[in-house]
Amino acid sequence: MFAYVVRRVLATIPVMAVVALFVFSLLYIAPGDPAAVIAGDQATPDDVERIRASLGLDRPYLVRFGAWVFDILRGDLGVSIFTNLPVSLMIKQRLEPTLSLMVVTLILAVSIAVPMGVIAAARVGTFIDKLVMGFAVLGFSVPVFVVGYLLAYIFALELEWLPVQGYTPFSNGFFPWMENLILPAIALGSVYIALIARITRASMLEVLQQDYIRTARAKGAGLRSILFLHALKNAAVPIVTVIGIGIALLIGGAVVTESVFAIPGLGRLTVDAILRRDYPVIQGVVLLFSFTYVLVNLIIDILYTLFDPRIRY
Amino acid sequence: MPFTAPAGQMPPSEGWETNMNRRDLLRGSAAAGAVAALPRVATAQAPANRVLKMVPQANLTSLDPIWTTANITRNHGHMIYDSLYGLDASFAPQPQMAEGHVLDDGGKVVTITLRPGLKFHDGEPVRAQDVVPSITRWMKRNPFGQKLETVIDALEVVDDRRIRFKLKRPFPLLFKALGQVSNSPAFIMPERLARTDPFQQVREAVGSGPFKFKADEYNSGSLVVYERFADYVPVSSGTPSLTAGPKVAHFDRVEWNIIVDAATAAAALQTGEIDWYEQPPPEIQQLLRRNRGLVIEAIDPLPLTGILRFNHLHAPFNDKKMRQAILPAIAQEDFMQAVVGTDPAIYRTGVGMFTPGTPLANDAGLGALAGARSVDRAKALMREAGYTNQLMRLIGPTDILAPSAMTQVGADLVRRLGFNADIVLTDWGTTVQRRTSREPVERGGWSMLFTAFSSVDFADPAAHFPLRGNGASAWFGWPTAPRLEELRDAWFEAPDLATEQRLAREMQTVAMDELPYVPVGAYLSMTAIKRNLTGRVPGLALFWNLRRT
Known about the structure:
B: alpha+beta; 27% helix
C-alpha cells in the first residue's frame, strides 16, 4: 500500500506539469490584456504599452513560461499583476473560507443524502421513495444561485435569522463561523445531496438483492442492522466514488455560491482574476485546484481498500 | 432645464429605523449568557456606530492612483491622500494642503507654502521634499500634468514648507491642475514612494489624508479597511465641497465590503449589514426605493456622458461624411433609457462635448442631434457618402452596465442602418484589449465602441481624452483634428472663464463637424445610502463630513 501511495504521489508530478503547461498556454492565447485593464478607461494607448512593458507582458512566450516554471520550482507562485501581493498570500487569505464552505457542505450533504438514499432503497416504490427521488430531481434541476437567493430571501431578508453575506473566520468562534456558512452550504449542497442520494439508493438496491442480505434476514437481523451494517458498507464503493467526483462539483459550485453570498473564497478569487486577466493568480489557483483534485482521487482510491478488502493495489 | 436628482422619498415614519434587527436580537440573547466566558477580544475595535460599511462600485485591485486611472483607485486615493489644492463643486481650486501661494514675475514664479502640522500616516511630517517628487511623478501620468510639465522651467524645494514653480510663461490653470479630482489626481506621497517610476506601482499606501489604509486587513476582492487618521488637521475654514474645504472624519473605521452580486448587496443594505451601496443597478434601485430607511440619490449632481467612439484609421469611419451620416439616426434618449431606465429625471438629452451643468457646457453645433430622428435620412446620407457594404465591427462589453446597455442599442442601430456589421460582445477585459488594435477590420480591428466618462473628465478639455485630435497619440480611435488641438492649447492659456467658454463653444463646433465621437446622452449615477447618514459630500464616494445621526 505504501509503495502504491508513493507511486501515486509521484504520478501527480507529470500531471501537474501538463496542467501547468496547459494553463499557461491557454492564458497566453486567450484574448484580454491586463495592462489595458490596469490602465483604466481614460488611459491612452501609449500608457497601455508602457504598463505592458513594465509588467513584462511584451516578452516572448517561451521566456515568460521559462521564468514562471523556474519560480514555481522554487515554490514561488509569483506576484499579482494588480495588487502587487504574493499569489501565495492571496491564496492563503482565501483558503479558509472555501475549505470551510466545502467541509460544511460535504458533512451536511453526506449526513443527509446517505440516510435519504438508504431509506428510499429500503422503501422502494413507496411514497417515501418517490419523495426522496422527487427531491433529488429538484436538487439537480434548480441552479445553485436560485436556491441561494431563495434561502437568503427567506432566512435573511424576511425572517432575519441569518446574515445575507460575508464570512466570519473560525477563530472568531464556532457559532459566528457557522452562522455565515449555513445558507451557502445548503445552497451548494442541494445538488450534491441529490447526486449522493440517487447513487446511494441505486447502489443499495443492488446490494439488497444479494444472497447474504437474504441470509441476514433469515437469521433474524433487524432492518436497521441489515441496512446500515450489512448493506451500506458493501454499497459504499460507488458512493465514495461519487463523493470524490463531487469534489469537482463543489469547486465549481463554490464559485457561484461564493458570489451569491459574498464569501471571500478561492472561487471568487478565480473569477475576479480571470475577469482582470491577472495571470499569476489564475495560474496559481488552477494549479492548487488541480492538485486538490488529484489528491482527492488518491484518497478515494485508498478508501476503496477499506470498504472492499478484495481490492488490492 | 435644471438637472435634479429624483426626489419623492417617503418621509420616515416613527420607529422606521432602529439599530437592532431580529437577528441582532437573537444573537444578542444567545450571546448574553456566553459573554462572561469569552475573552475580551473586541475591546480594541471601534464601536459599531463609529464604523461605516460600504459596498464600493468595484473591487480595489491597485492601490496606486497615479499608476492607474481606475475610478475605484481614485476613490481609495481620496481616502488616504491629500492634495495641495482641492476643487469645489464649481470646479474652482481651493487651498487644501497648501496654506497659500505667492505669484511673482508676472505669474511666472509661483511659490506654494504648505500648512503647518501636516503629517503622513507613518508619523513623518509632510515636507516640500515630498511634494516635489509627488508632483513630478504625477506630471508623467496626468494629461493636465503633462501639459503643465511643458511650461515648467523648474520645480524646486525652497525649504521644508515651500515649493517653487518657475514657469516659461504664466499658467493660469496651475492650481486647477494641482487640484484635479479624477484621472490620477496630484496626490502627495512620502518622498521614498513618490520617487517610484510612474509606470510602476508604489509598494505601500501611505498618505496624509483623513483616513489610514489598513494594509494588514486588506483582502482584495473582499475587504478594504480604513481608520480615521487621528493626526489629520483639516483646513480651518470653508465648507466641504467636492475635494475642497475641511475634511473631517466622523467614523473611526470605514470598511469597503466587496460584494459583486447586486442582489446580495441590496439585501445586505436592507438587513443593515452595510450602510451604503455605491452603485446599485437601475433594477435594484427600484427595489431599494421601497425601503423607507434608505435614500436613493445621485452620487454626483453632475452626470456621466456616454459616447459612441469611431475608429478613424479605417473604413468606413475614416471618412468624415460616413461619421456624419449616422447622426440623424442617433436618439440620445434611446441610449440613456437603456442605461438608467425611463425616468427622465435621471438622464439628459441634448448633450454635447462637455458635462451638462458645468461652465463649459454649451449647445454649439448640436443641431444634428436635435429634432426628429430618422434612420431613412441616415441611410440616404450613407449612400451619398459612398457606403458600399464594407464590413464594420462594433465591439463592447457585456459585464459593465452602461457600456453594455449602450452597445446593445448601438448594435440595433447599426443593423437598422443596414451596415454589414459584425457585433462582438465580450467581457470588459477583452474589450479593452481589443480596442487597442489599430488593425483594419479584416485583421481583427474595430470600427465603433461605446463607453462612458465621469462628469469631471468631461468638465473641461484638460482630461477630455475623446475630444483630442492628436492622431496616433490620441485616445483609442485615433482621430486627427489639428484645429481641436489648437483650441485645446489655447484653452490652457485662457485668462478668464469667458475666454474658456468661447473656446469650448468653438471646440464643440469643430468636434460636431469632425466627430471624433458622438455624445449619446448623459445620466446620473445613483447611490443607495441609509437615511440616518447625513453630510455626504456630493461628487464621488467621499467619506469625510459623513456622519450617523
